[in-house]
Amino acid sequence: MKFAFFFPGQGSQSVGMMQGLADIEVVRQTFAEASDLLGQDFWSMVTEPNEALNQTSNTQPLMLTAGIATWRAWQAQSSLVPTLVAGHSLGEYTALVAAGALTFKDALPLVRYRAEVMQNAVGEGVGAMAAILGLDDETVRQVCAEGAQGEVLEAVNLNSPGQVVIAGNKGAVERGMELAKVKGAKRALALPVSVPSHCALMKPAAEALAIYLQNVPITATNIPVIHNADVLAYNDVSQIKDALVRQLYSPVRWVETIQSTYNQGVQISAECGPGKVLAGLTKRIVAELPCIALTNIESLAEAQAQFSA
Q1: Active site residue 89
Q2: Of 21, 282, 44, 4, which is closest to residue 159 (Cα–Cα)?
Q3: What CA–CA distance (Å, rounded) separates 228 from 142?
Q4: Is 198 a catalytic residue?
Q5: Alpha-carbon distance 6 to 71, whole Å?
Q6: Which residues, 6 or more positions from 201, have their beta carbon under 8 angstroms from its beta carbon?
Q7: φ and ψ of 18, to 5 deg
Q8: What's the pTM?
Q9: pLDDT value of residue 115
């Protein structure tokens, strides 16, 4: 049976998020490895209430660690390999590690650097993001064109039909939220983030990331990875690096990613990491593509049984 793995990104983190897999030895080993490499106790960060969990420079390596811990838990119980993998935003890096293109050891400092240059690209209070619910993609793009007024305002996360995230300068985002309501949006919600991801304000971060990536060893993938920026899979190393750079200032085309997965004959999928955000989005995008969230030992066993059928 053809199946796919999807890796979540920033926003799926929460205290207690790994408790369902805490008794699996390789999960704790993966967190210990990350803690040793970056000099922080990542396990306590996900088990005890703290403010560090939601700081971008911590969240990105933490979500990478959680996704790879879950991936290794899967590998410990099954020899089955996905037909393809994809990751939402930061999750694309986790997907590349799972696909063998990037080592976990190299990916951890890479995503921390990515978080730092994203944070440094835009001053505090300059950028913002908001979720627009109940409008089609084209109407949201019209909202952005009208609301920009010389500033940056773009549709950046095309998450599911009727759920699009916009990002840009704070004033432009606020204008966009009001315009969206006028045009019939069910809701326009400001998101509690400090970095306006995947819009033109991230181009300075992308330039810095491109320089950093020159010295990061990346190889061809063992499993196809669908990239956010263009919904394509690459085996050429320079193209993989270019896709990662472009991802910083390009929309996350998640609807097309799930549709492409289904069109390639994938019959079932799993969300490999904490939470159930991507499982929910998958159901809304392609109802015929089931997605199991691998959040505990029972769900790992369920996936093993279904993928083996």
Answers
A1: yes
A2: 282
A3: 22
A4: yes
A5: 10
A6: 121, 122, 126, 127, 152, 167, 168, 169, 249
A7: -105, 10
A8: 0.96
A9: 94
